[in-house]
Specification:
This protein has 295 residues and is α+β, with helices and mostly antiparallel strands. It is 24% helix and 32% strand. The longest helix is centred in the C-terminal third of the chain and has 22 residues, at 247-268.
Length: 295
């Protein structure tokens, strides 16, 4: 509520400043002061300076972190309801105890012995990609990217597929996340955690180290077993430690080298660099308010 026009009419300033204030007729003006509320616009008579609206719901106190985040989710039509029973029924009935069926091993590449690892921000639980590199006898690198095979669990046009299409993406806020898929999939059965066999879709290239030219490419469904889940800092420390010649350290250095070669080729060809900074908030233990931010 931004202005009080009379004893029972007030003006509501909308979150999107491109829209005009809305006149709201109510006997609860005092109770609505300093509140975040949801209104609709029902009419805009020619005689009225403001469109006329109805009160739909009181979200809570303005300035409260939880309330402000609720408003953001509502403003952008983010789906926040729990997953329905029809969606949850699409998941394996044995839940976290589910194991890869023997038949799947016969259909897929067996990459469990490769030195595959993941590199993600600290605290990441839904690890959706991993990678590896190794030196081939001819001096080229074999490089692989392995994406969690969610399609094994999400069948076309099933209730869980329709729900995921409606949600489109997982939405991250400072204090919460709204998932596109149930956590049983994103944080358990599909997450490429270390030391656990997982279904994946893999792309494997043979790459010339000096030029970054791709000699061959192959795609296929696979079974992988990540050797380690690194944070960005851990991976960088491993790369920088010249005394570490472990397979994972060598793999990461090869991946970094080829990425630098490819980046330079793009820049030489006139590529545009667009900066994108990923931030992570540290939350207070008592009030769950952000206390620090890291990049």
């Amino acid at each position: 509520v931004s202005d009080v026009l009379s004893d029972n009419v007030c003006c509501v300033a909308l979150a999107d400043s491109r829209f005009p204030k809305v006149a709201l007729k109510t006997t609860r003006i005092d109770a609505l002061l300093n509140k975040k509320i949801i209104v609709n616009i029902r009419d805009w008579p020619a005689y009225s300076k403001y469109p006329l609206g109805n009160l739909i719901r009181v979200v809570g106190d303005a300035g409260n972190n939880t309330v402000e985040n609720d408003v953001i989710l509502f403003e952008f039509s983010v789906e926040t309801r729990d997953f329905s029973k029809r969606v949850l029924d699409c998941l394996p009935q044995d839940g976290e105890n589910w194991r890869i069926p023997e038949a799947e091993y016969k259909k897929r590449w067996d990459l469990r012995n490769e030195n595959i690892c993941s590199v993600d921000p600290p605290g990441c639980r839904d690890i959706d990609d991993a990678l590896h590199s190794k030196l081939l006898p001819n001096g080229n690198y074999e490089m692989g990217v392995h994406i969690a095979d969610v399609t094994y669990f999400v069948r076309p046009d099933a209730a869980i597929d329709v729900e995921a299409a409606n949600r489109c993406t997982t939405v991250y806020l400072v204090d919460r996340r709204t998932d596109m898929l149930p956590k049983l999939l994103t944080e358990c059965l599909c997450s490429l955690v270390s030391g656990v066999e997982r279904l994946a879709f893999s792309v494997i290239w043979e790459v010339e180290p000096k030029t970054g030219n791709i000699v061959s490419t192959r795609f296929g469904k696979s079974v992988i077993k990540s050797k380690h889940a690194f944070t960005y800092q851990q991976a960088q420390e491993l790369i920088d430690d010249a005394s570490d010649s472990s397979p994972l350290a060598v793999s990461l250095r090869q991946l970094l080298h080829v990425s630098q070669v490819l980046k330079q080729k793009r820049l030489d060809a006139g590529a545009l660099q667009l900066a994108s900074t990923q931030v992570k908030f540290k939350m207070g233990e008592e009030d769950n308010n952000p206390t620090d931010v890291t990049y």
